[in-house]
Amino acid sequence: MAKLMINKNKKEGTIAPEIYGHFSEHLGRCIYEGLYVGENSEIPNVNGMRTDVVEALKEIKIPVLRWPGGCFADEYHWKDGIGPKENRKKMVNTHWGGVVEDNSFGTHEFFELCRQLGCKTYINGNLGSGTVQEMSEWVEYMTFNGVSPMADLRKKNGHEEPWTIDYFGVGNENWGCGGNMRPQYYADEYRRYQTYVRNYDSQKPIQKICGGANVDDYDWTRKVLETTHDHTVPEFHGFMDGLSLHYYVHPEGWEIKGSATDFDEEVWYKTLKKALYMETLVERHGKIMDQYDPDKKIGMIVDEWGCWFTVEPGTNPGFLYQQNTVRDALVAGITLNIFNKHCDRVKMANLAQMVNVLQSVILTEGPKMIKTPTYHVFHMYRHHQGATLLNSTLTGVGETGIGEWKVPEVTESVSEDAEHIITVTLNNLSADEEKEIEIVIAGDEHVYSVKEAKVVSAEMHAHNTFDAPELVKEEVFTAYKKCADRIKIMLPPCSVVELRLQ
Ligand code: AHR
Questions:
Q1: 304 flagged as catalytic
Q2: Active-site annotation holder among 134, 173, 412, 498
Q3: Which of 9, 34, 50, 201 holds its CA 20 to 30 A away from the CA of 280?
């Protein structure tokens, strides 16, 4: 029988809560409609933020939110988004649908949203089309607590106290939409721009994120680090705290992508195989990072990840609106297990995107809101946030799949929280077969029993709609039994399971 061996004596690091982070861009209906409806909307809101969405997001313990992009960040001019709304400039959102951006959601609104969510802030600056002065002044506007032109402007706009920027991204995808730069050029620009991202409050230093590679562009990682790594020594701490990585799963490749809901069993396995590729990326980029930063002071920041399918029929192609099935739940479960297991290097990750765009946790339609299968995975996995990763290995697990698209039958990760509760998250990747597994905990006299068990599982295409909002949801998992010192479980096909052991 397959066995999951958990070694309680082998603690492998802390799972940064920020691995469970999110991303919201001025793209389609993510910010407008999805999160922000304005104070005068008939949709219940607090200071313009939709109450239903904020309440649902609080339940999954959003640790950090990245904003305003994405590609949008490198054409965003922050001064257009402050002051009285009627005076704010309107601009064209060239990347996403060519629609009018009225800037009614700007800096003040972002911090208000994060306040309501109780999460950390990750601002992405404009290096591609903005100036050093513009970036520097934005940081001064947000964080300086004294007399200065930008702090005075913030106060004039109604916010006396400075805010806290937890993370600041110096550009986005500067190898592409952020300026089509070559790595050496970007790295030099990074050195220059980040110099003026000042830490006005030494008690709350801003973590600076350098723009990293697209997928498997290892050359980018190497060349950027070659130009910047001399500043990773302790006396320069703060020069560079993170290096980003972007990877999306397109089952049929970038051009075709593939439908979110209409796929066969082969595409199911193809998608999961592509999701598993995240592990190769983390390991290979991580090896290069180890050469320049052996003490792992620089975090790998996977600030865009998730499934990117063809948009829903009849929707604006520039809005990237897609449905979310049990397949997305598996992609989320697999990917989060990978991040947990690499928590020595992966310090933050941001699902793209939070609402109504790509692999969202929430979809809205007018006043209606639904939670996606991905939402439920984040809800179950929230117990890993800030917990200690325990060494765990699976034996007796084979492969499943079709043709070249072979995947392991099961993936897992295990952590222990401050109350010594062990959280085990497992995914059964098989489209049609259940899998029996026994769980053994070594290195502890204590005999564990199941305190709580949840499952998300249904037919692979199953998804929630505004007419049937609860077709896929977390349910109580009962397919386990205790046998002496071990627990035997039966994982249903297409499932994500969470066990809490005490
Ligand atoms: O998340 C959608 C887009 O994907 C982002 O704007 C960009 O950074 C990436 O290419």
A1: yes
A2: 173
A3: 9
